[in-house]
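Holo prediction — coenzyme A.
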Amino acid sequence: MPATWRDLQELRHLEQACFQQDAWPLLDVIGVLSFPGVVRLKAVIAGKMVGFIAGEVCKPEDLAWIATIGVLPAFQRRGIGSALLNACEENLGVERIRLSVRAGNNTAIRLYESFGYRQVGSWPDYYRGGVDAVVLEKHFHR
Ligand SMILES: CC(C)(COP(=O)(O)OP(=O)(O)OC[C@H]1O[C@@H](n2cnc3c(N)ncnc32)[C@H](O)[C@@H]1OP(=O)(O)O)[C@@H](O)C(=O)NCCC(=O)NCCS
């Protein structure tokens, strides 16, 4: 279901739990919950946010970027990440979607590859600790 600015505290918590030192600063979390045109979806179990995804279309290019996806550790491996990714892809509705992921994050990379994302580039030294970002892309025939 769609997330709103009321989810600020829960999203902060989820970011910390999922990304530790790579968690977004407060301003980025506020931005992703409030900028117009962002697809922001949450997974909720028993009234609690357990997963979140956000993506944004870059209009002229018919290309979208997935900005973040995370599922609370205790709720991982139950299909929630896949369900969020599916729903976000549908909502974005573009021909190409890109995302970046920390090199070595094999759990996420496996998820994306199983969805049909393929590597199209890398950004050296992008994440904390000098870790590269792997850039993946998927094409849709809509
Ligand atoms: C990546 C993430 C969102 C996946 O969420 P999830 O709800 O666990 O995903 P799913 O249960 O839908 O699993 C989908 C597939 O991902 C892969 N996967 C998920 N967890 C895995 C694990 N621990 N080990 C290996 N593969 C894994 C598998 O291919 C899995 O399919 P399968 O269960 O049929 O084998 C979640 O692991 C997460 O939040 N990680 C921390 C944050 C992060 O790294 N986000 C991505 C940043 S770009």
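READOUT: The chain has a mean pLDDT of 95.
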